[in-house]
């Protein structure tokens, strides 16, 4: 499900959202503000999500801990 | 008016206009423009002092009215009458006519007279009242003395025998006004013994000195009696209560008595006459009492009248104050105008937004029509080469953002508004540092509350809150982004959320014992935690190892994106100002330099993430080392990232290095070539000061030179050092002053700064990692020191303890983690906007547009604060 392609699929979705934001931004003298802010927000959030996802895609280390109780371990 | 509107993207188009207004309606026009608030007038009388200007008399008169109004306010404070404050949002004041103002001035004049006369009579009456009260006390106390004294006349006589007894005249005749010694007591009365007395009242703290002085000057020839007045008497001059004593001094001989009087007066005592005779004294007391009652009645009436007068004033005082303040501002503005006495016309010059010209024109027209004047008011757009002011329109939402940008500087006229990216980047970068869902939700609630109760909270004057309130929309956006980053970091009060199934599972050995070290493995090669950090990492031993690497790389990527984005604005600026050399000499080489090094780094980070190093059994390279070796030993690859890396890196380094001389030399040499070409064509830079103002004589001839100078000015116009200062008026564009050296030095500084900044600014974004690490660690420490302990308790006491601990946890979370950490993250984010982002594109060489506006005036005038609700 959530494999490497997710980043690309996410990018496509985000680009579509940006286009939609460009088209549907409220008209008027603040249109430029709406467009810039919405697209910038979407892009920023996407970058952050993608970076987080990519960093876990091929992890070089795995979680390790030694404070687990026996009852919990299989959860 | 259906043209392109001004947008927040860049500052509004400005025009300089000249207004010709008939003298009669000057005041009305300025009033109307003040309500409109779109025009900034220039001072055309710079050479005149404040006293020489035309409307100084009017301002003086208004100053006087204002003084009178303040006097009323002071009187109201004294009388304890509260002021009815004016709420500008609710009450709107109609523009006053001249006669309104005259009427107000007259009314104030008469009111002042009335109030001050009431005050005077009140004070006089008060003094009378106190005198009467004192007299009453003297009568009462002295009565006691006399009754006692009659018993031991001989003693008194003996004590005063030493005095010269050569005076024959009955002393008391002089001392007292009503001399009547009843025959029955004649031989026992004081007058019969030639003993006189002085009675009066003196402040208690002076009594000792008074006594001593009397004793010394009269060598003991006196008999003094005194008694304390139990109630403190109010001194009418200072309005402070003073404790006083009644005294009666008996002495022998006219001169001595006169001396005593003098001394008493000089010591500030009040002397009252008292009759020796008990019956007369009783009559006197009755009379005093009657008079006192009268005075008190009158006093009460006066006070009532004054109160009524003042409370009537209090109802409209605020409105008058505002009216006078506005009127003064109008005349101050009119003083900036040139007054043509011959034609009885006022001439003004002003900056105003080009797109609002029709509105200004309509206002002018309306005022002229209303006044029924046949002479029209004329508004002319004039051409000038002065730098127009920067006017960035704001609304409720953008105002606070624009303010934090303007705190850094005023954008150059018509360059991209630096606040445009800030609306998102500032709160977003804040959120990267602040990311915790719990804290973000609390912040969101606070921000929403401030927005929901926007109107009532506006009146709060507590300064610290007013500041937070002013930034409520910033707080809202910051909270929203923090919710997102909190979800990404999977942190809620330092705990994690198991929203999706983890990609990891523990490898449990069959003989597992509690506390044994276990590691996890990926459950499914095709499944990764879809949103944010996997919760399995939470609380592990190598949690920090993983998140540090992740957050560090994310900081670099976000920094790169932020700076690249900012750099693109410099391209838009160059396009707008039609300076292609800025594109080819600054933007393009700068961009290539930056991307060749840091764009490559970001690409490598992403590439490294997308390769399955463990699966293919290769060793992952350290990217930091790779970048360092790329500079120190080009061509040396420590651990390969991809085949052919060596050549790519050498190539990129070469490309980057080549950009440096382009950055250094292209622009200055191009400018010199352009300048020389213009010279060769025969253009000369004589008198190239183009029109500054149609009225400044020095510039009269300049318009003709316009074309020539614009050709030459073009070359220098590109300079970064076009000072843009308005008041100097000579802006830029002096072809004859083209200094190659200066341009070169400028460009060298720019190049060095840009190249070094690419490195240092990228490193500077690591603060994103550092602060988010600090925030996360602090909140987990807070949890372990409060809630973790509280949750261990059991039973009733444990439950009560938990409630207490939760209180402490919540309070500390708000104070330390939301407020303190929030402020710190905000400052860091602000720095990233101001330094790292703005330095890439913004010039900040503008001067702010400050229109003449009543709204701004009333908001900013400190003296009006007590009058406005």
Automatic annotation (TrEMBL), chain A:
It is a multi-pass membrane protein. The chain crosses the membrane at residues 7-25, 37-61. Keywords: Hydrogen ion transport, Ion transport, Membrane, Transmembrane, Transmembrane helix, Transport. It comes from the Eukaryota. Pfam families: ATP_synt_H. Its main location: membrane. InterPro entries: ATPase_V0-cplx_e1/e2_su. It is found in: Endomembrane system. The keyword Acyltransferase does not apply. Belongs to the V-ATPase e1/e2 subunit family. This is Uncharacterized protein. It comes from Remersonia thermophila. The lineage of its organism: Eukaryota, Fungi, Dikarya, Ascomycota, Pezizomycotina.
UniProtKB/TrEMBL annotation, chain B:
It comes from Remersonia thermophila. PANTHER family: V-TYPE PROTON ATPASE SUBUNIT A (PTHR11629:SF63), VACUOLAR PROTON ATPASES (PTHR11629). This is V-type proton ATPase subunit a. Its main location: membrane. Keywords: Coiled coil, Hydrogen ion transport, Ion transport, Membrane, Transmembrane, Transmembrane helix, Transport. It is a multi-pass membrane protein. It is found in: Membrane. It holds the Pfam family V_ATPase_I.
């Amino acid at each position: 499900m959530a494999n490497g392609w997710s980043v690309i699929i996410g990018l496509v979705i985000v680009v579509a959202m940006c286009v939609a934001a460009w088209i549907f931004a409220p008209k008027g003298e603040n249109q430029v503000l709406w467009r810039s802010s919405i697209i910038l927000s979407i892009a920023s959030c996407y970058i952050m999500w993608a970076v987080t996802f990519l960093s876990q895609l091929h992890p070089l280390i795995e979680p390790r801990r030694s404070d687990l109780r026996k009852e919990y371990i299989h959860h | 008016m259906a043209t392109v509107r001004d947008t927040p993207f860049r500052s509004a188009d400005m025009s300089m206009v000249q207004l010709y207004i008939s003298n009669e309606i000057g005041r009305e026009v300025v009033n109307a423009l003040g309500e409109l608030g779109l025009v900034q007038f220039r001072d055309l009388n710079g050479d005149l002092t404040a006293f020489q200007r035309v409307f100084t008399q009017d301002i003086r008169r208004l100053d006087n009215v204002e003084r009178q109004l303040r006097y009323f306010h002071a009187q109201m404070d004294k009388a304890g009458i509260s002021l009815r404050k004016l709420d500008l949002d609710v009450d709107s004041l109609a523009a006053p006519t001249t006669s309104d103002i005259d009427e107000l001035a007259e009314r104030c004049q008469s009111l002042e007279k009335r109030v001050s006369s009431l005050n005077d009579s009140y004070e006089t009456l008060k003094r009378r009242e106190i005198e009467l009260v004192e007299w009453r006390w003297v009568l009462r106390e002295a009565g006691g003395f006399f009754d006692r004294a009659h018993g031991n006349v001989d003693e008194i006589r003996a004590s005063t025998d030493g005095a010269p007894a050569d005076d024959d005249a009955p002393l008391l005749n002089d001392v007292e006004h009503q001399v009547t010694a009843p025959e029955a007591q004649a031989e026992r009365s004081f007058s019969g013994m030639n003993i006189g007395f002085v009675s009066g009242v003196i402040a208690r703290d002076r009594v000792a000195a008074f006594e001593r002085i009397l004793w010394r000057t009269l060598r003991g020839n006196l008999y003094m009696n005194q008694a304390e007045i139990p109630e403190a008497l109010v001194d009418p001059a200072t309005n402070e209560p003073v404790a006083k004593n009644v005294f009666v001094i008996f002495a022998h001989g006219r001169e001595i008595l006169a001396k005593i009087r003098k001394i008493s007066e000089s010591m500030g005592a009040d002397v009252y006459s008292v009759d020796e005779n008990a019956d007369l004294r009783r009559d006197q007391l009755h009379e005093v009492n009657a008079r006192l009652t009268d005075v008190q009645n009158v006093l009460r009436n006066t006070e009532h009248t004054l109160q009524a007068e003042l409370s009537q004033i209090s109802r409209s005082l605020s409105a008058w104050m505002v009216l006078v303040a506005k009127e003064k501002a109008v005349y101050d503005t009119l003083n900036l105008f040139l007054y043509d006495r011959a034609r009885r016309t006022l001439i003004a010059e002003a900056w105003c937004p080009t797109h609002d010209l029709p509105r200004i024109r309509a206002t002018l027209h309306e005022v002229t029509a209303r006044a029924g004047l046949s002479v029209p008011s004329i508004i002319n757009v004039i051409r000038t080469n002065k730098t127009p002011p920067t006017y960035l329109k704001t609304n409720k939402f953008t105002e606070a953002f624009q303010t934090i940008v303007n705190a850094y500087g005023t954008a150059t006229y018509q360059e991209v508004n630096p606040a445009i990216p800030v609306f998102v980047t500032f709160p977003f970068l804040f959120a990267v540092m602040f990311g915790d869902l719990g804290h973000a939700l609390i912040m969101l609630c606070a921000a929403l509350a401030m927005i929901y109760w926007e109107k009532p909270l506006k009146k709060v004057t507590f300064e610290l809150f007013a500041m937070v309130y002013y930034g409520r929309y910033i707080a809202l956006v910051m909270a929203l982004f923090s919710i997102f980053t909190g979800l990404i970091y999977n942190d809620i009060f330092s705990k994690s959320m198991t929203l999706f199934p983890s990609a990891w599972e523990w490898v449990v050995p069959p003989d597992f014992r509690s506390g044994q070290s276990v590691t996890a493995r990926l459950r499914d090669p095709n499944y990764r935690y879809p949103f944010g950090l996997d919760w399995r990492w939470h609380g592990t031993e190598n949690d920090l190892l993983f998140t540090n690497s992740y957050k560090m790389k994310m900081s670099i990527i976000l920094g790169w994106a932020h700076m690249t984005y900012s750099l693109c604005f410099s391209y838009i600026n160059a396009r707008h100002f039609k300076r292609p050399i800025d594109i080819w000499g600054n933007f393009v080489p700068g961009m290539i330099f930056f991307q060749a090094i840091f764009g490559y780094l970001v690409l490598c980070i992403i590439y490294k993430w997308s390769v399955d190093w463990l699966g293919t059994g290769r060793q992952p390279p350290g990217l930091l080392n790779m970048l360092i070796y790329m500079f120190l030993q080009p061509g040396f690859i420590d651990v390969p990232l991809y085949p052919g890396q060596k050549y790519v890196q050498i190539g990129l380094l070469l490309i980057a290095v080549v950009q440096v001389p382009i950055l250094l030399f292209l622009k200055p040499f191009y400018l010199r070539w352009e300048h020389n070409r213009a010279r060769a064509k025969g253009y000369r830079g004589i008198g190239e000061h183009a029109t500054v103002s149609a009225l400044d004589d020095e510039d009269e001839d300049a318009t003709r030179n316009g074309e020539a100078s614009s050709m030459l000015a073009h070359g220098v116009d590109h300079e970064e050092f076009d000072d843009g200062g308005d008041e100097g008026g000579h802006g830029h564009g002096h072809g004859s002053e083209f200094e190659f050296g200066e341009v070169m030095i400028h460009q060298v500084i720019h190049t060095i700064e840009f190249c070094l900044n690419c490195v240092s600014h990228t490193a500077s974004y690591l603060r994103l990692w550092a602060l988010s690490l600090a925030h996360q660690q602090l909140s987990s420490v807070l949890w372990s020191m409060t809630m973790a302990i509280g949750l261990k308790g059991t039973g009733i006491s444990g439950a009560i303890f938990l409630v207490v601990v939760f209180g402490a946890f919540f309070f500390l979370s708000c104070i330390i983690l939301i407020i303190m950490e929030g402020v710190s993250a905000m400052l860091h984010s602000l720095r990233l906007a101001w330094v790292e982002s703005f330095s890439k594109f913004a010039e900040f060489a503008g001067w702010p547009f400050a229109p003449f506006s009543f709204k701004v005036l009333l908001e900013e005038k400190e003296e009006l604060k007590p009058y406005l609700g």
